[in-house]
User: Fold this.
Amino acid sequence: MSFPLVSRTQRLVLWIAILASFVSFLDSSVINVALPAISRELGGGLTTQQWVVDAYLITLGSLILVAGSLSDLLGRIVVLRAGLIGFGATSLMCALAPTGEVLILARALQGVAGALLVPSSLALITSTFEEAPRAKAIGQWTAGTTVAFIAGPLLGGVLVDSAGWRWVFGINVLPIAVTLYLLGVLRVRDVREEGVRIDYPGAVLCVLGLAGPVYGLIEHGNFGWRSPLILMPVVFGTLCLAGFLWRERTAQQPLLPLSLFSVRNFAVGNVATAFIYAALSIGGFIIVLFLQQVAGFPATFAALALLPVSIVNILLASWFGSLAGRFGPRWFMALGPALAGGGYLLMLASEMPVNYWAQLLPGILLFALGLSATVAPLTAAILGSISEQQAGIGSAVNNAVSRVAGLIGIALVGLVVGNKLDLDGFHRVVTVTAVLLILGGIVSALGIQNPRDRSAGRIQQEASSNSARRYWTFRPGRQKSGSS
Assistant:
């Protein structure tokens, strides 16, 4: 990859940002492929598979907003280096985990490190490039990281089938080592902002508030809803969430500025985000598991099953973003999720033995078309509703909403599937996924307003370039940068 930039320092910064983000994105794109093999070796069934995903998302989703403040307070390079070292160490912990419990703990710690990577890498770009070159650099960063989403699942499938699931985590070590070397070579003054305060009580309340209800949703099948082991974490977590909202109303520098939700398109867009990204998380999780555990396909083929979604999204997202810029995002956000939901309803035709080409691929293609029509207009509607000065924190909040939605979606899978995944359970989860997507479209149709001024080219271009990778990563953002 060639970067036509004048400064050697800028080239180094761009490569560092791409590689650091690549590590986090690669991990997100390959994990579902490895879940059946993890369950076979370490046991625990669907519960373990849910926790392997959600332990990472709990810490990642709740600490995204904190990471932006840490980057401002301590410096982008310091935080990025800490994130890389932490991600490398926890990746090795995952690869060497002797039991499911150790793997789940390592995944939670990996989420803490992952929360530091993407916001800090984007912050490094914004502090190194001026306005005009910055947009180009972010576009190149997006193109470079998109490779992780296309190559990641295939690489993960090949590794699971040939060398074993542990190598899915081991592959992080090489890009981390290269990135740390480049950081050592980089000679640039770190940037720290004065007056930044981190809302530590808010962060703790957010983590506990998410962990309690998610624990109850995943473990209720083992203990029952009336068990104190379920009721106490759920009640405690709910109280912590209420405390978090109260804290954010009173904190001088809140992690989650609730005043943003007084803007109609921002509030409605985030509600739609919650429905849509919960569905995306559930759908990607269940299809890969179903193809391996029920249909009996190898991990490599299961990894390729959703590749058409990435290809269609890359080809069409920019076009739909341009159309939304001309006609407004409302009806794209309404019809896109409805089409995507229709794609999942088509998958109800699946039966045993499973024929991917006839029973699943048509629905996947329709889903891909609907998703392509949705993501860029959704991002544009949310960021276009607030000022440019608020774009950084607005993007970070929206990213946190999408992460948390995915977290809760995965936790709900066990409630829908039951004790064991089979064809009927797959059909139930597919139906729930379709309903969530359609609800996201209904919320958008009823609540989103097309802006009177549709000349926000910056927002549309940014939304289009980010849409491909957002499907896989929910686009971690940064609080104070001007980019998402």
Observations:
- Confidence is low (pLDDT under 50) at residues 454-459, 461-484.
- The CA atoms of residues 30 and 153 lie 5 Å apart.
